[in-house]
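User: Hi! I'm working on a homework problem where we have to compare a predicted structure to a textbook description. Could you give me the structure for the chain below?
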Amino acid sequence: MNPDLQRLQPYPFEKLAVLKAAVSAPENLSHIALSIGEPKHQSPDFVKQTLIDNIDKLANYPTTKGIPELSEAIADWLTTRFQLKSKSINPSRNVIPVNGTREAIFAFAQAVIDRSKNPLLVSPNPFYQIYEGAAFLAGAEPHFLPCLETNNFIPDFDKVSDETWQRCQLLFLCSPGNPTGAVIDSQALQKLIGLADKFDFIIASDECYSELYFDEQRPPIGLLQACAEMGRDDYRRCVVFHSLSKRSNLPGLRSGFVAGDGDILKPFLLYRTYHGCAMPIQHQFASIAAWGDELHVKANRDQYRAKFDAVLNILEGSLEVSKPDAGFYLWAKTPIGDTDFAQQLFAQQHMTVLPGSYIGREVDGNNPGANRVRMALVASLEECIAGAERIKQFTATLNK
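Assistant: Happy to help. Predicted structure tokens:
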């Protein structure tokens, strides 16, 4: 077996299951789960119908590159959403459809890391655990940058040494962040692009939460948009990952894309042809429909706004938490240890949240996820309100 498999940690939800198994939840309360970031809003009916209308495509093998119409729809969406130069995104050169970004993020590291050069894969901390697993199995050492409240939950890139950047082959960004919801601004992105040029590394920006934001006049900036603001229309050394899971409430469709530097995507496409991960054609047509409509996305944001407003209003004065820049997570401080908080909340209120330390790593004696919990406001408005009331009752018992 590949010895690097031994370096993989259990997934956060495996740890959470063990934590909960040590206690019993009250049977008189229904379970409220705010631990997993799985969208629960209704999937768009027109996307479902498109899937049904093309179900006969089951009889056809899909290609890794996908049908041209999908890449064209993605290129059009990217150009409009991120104010890119017209025609700078070539559908056949700068876009690859993928089966959800989870597999693509992992596969990308395998394709671009040169394990013969003692590589680093630099990542935010806390983080989406795929980044770490991708590093280990690509033969790279993960290097974690803490996302602390003192820097608005953005890594302090100015504190990274030249030696670290010199060894860095791949920098993963997550903006808006999971779990913090923090958005990296254009100035920081452009500085990172300059560092990538100086030290010759690739920037891979996970932007799967980019369409969940609060101010309709100020959508989060993306990495390709920062490139465009620099006049860098070849998107050199930069790639982005986007998904329909959160944007369109389609996690089961397993549809997303990678876009950016065509010189990087060309060998990545070669890797994918051997990887065997082509998107079913009926899913491609459904994806075209989803990328081409913004009304359902706006309605999706409206639902999240209502939940954030209601929950934060209830929790005010009970738990130290604030509205994030974007996304659907609350990143709350806990008055006791995060694992104790999560376990006791489950035992007393039959409610599940994710300990922050499970999605962070200890570096120099500090885990930036410690004493925090992640709450995904994915349940219905009614359930989120009920959950906030239970947390308020629970924290009141801690204060006593």
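For your comparison, note the following. The longest strand covers residues 168-174. The radius of gyration is 21 Å. Good luck with the assignment!
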